[in-house]
Amino acid sequence: ILCKLVITLQMLCYHRNVKKNYRSEFNRLQKMTKENYEIYYYNDSHFQSVSPHVHDYYEFYFPVAGKIEMEIEGKYTPLSSRSVVIVPPGTVHRAVTETDERSYCRYVFWISASYYRRLSAQSEELAYIVKRVESDGKYIYHFKEHEYALIQSKILRLIEEESMDRYGRSVFAG
């Protein structure tokens, strides 16, 4: 119980810090502008569902708060704050909100196909989960609280690192 409390408090502190310092403005164009990857924290108070669309890159989607469903290839699935959505290139998808009056927070991580290939050659875990998504068509995964806290801490660390301007940043960016 103490471990769960510590994790919860840590995530609240991180979330407040990200909400305050690293929030991105949502761009409806949904196009990558960097070569390897992009990561965003969105917090929209009046989010309107986007039209079904595809990308030529991988999208990893991490909802934090709000009532949201993900439509993938015509199938709707409700998401929780412990869901992870993996959308391979060429997959028709969209986020759907029930109402535009509630706050909707999420992390979105885009990885170019070429950068994914480089990363997957170095990480069997990354290659495994994406291959499973592509072969089984299971795009959405739900995690236990402590598992998701670990995932979220890594996302937050990446967002912090991306926003820092210090020596060695170019090495981290790949």
Verbal overview:
The structure is a single chain. The protein is α+β, with helices and mostly antiparallel strands. Helix content is 38%, strand content 28%. It is built from five helices and eight strands, in the order H-E-E-E-E-E-E-E-H-H-E-H-H. The chain has helices spanning 2-21, 113-122, 124-136, 145-163, 169-172, and strands at residues 37-44, 57-65, 68-72, 75-78, 83-87, 93-97, 104-112, 140-142. The strands form two sheets. It has a five-stranded antiparallel sheet with strand order 1-7-2-5-8. Strands 4-3-6 form a three-stranded antiparallel sheet, with no helix packed on it. Strand 3 and strand 4 form a beta hairpin. Helix 1 packs parallel to helix 4 (145-163) and helix 2 (113-122) crosses helix 3. The protein is globular. The relative contact order is 0.20.
How would you briefly describe this protein structure?
With 174 residues, the protein is α+β, with helices and mostly antiparallel strands. The chain has helices spanning 2-21, 113-122, 124-136, 145-163, 169-172, and strands at residues 37-44, 57-65, 68-72, 75-78, 83-87, 93-97, 104-112, 140-142.
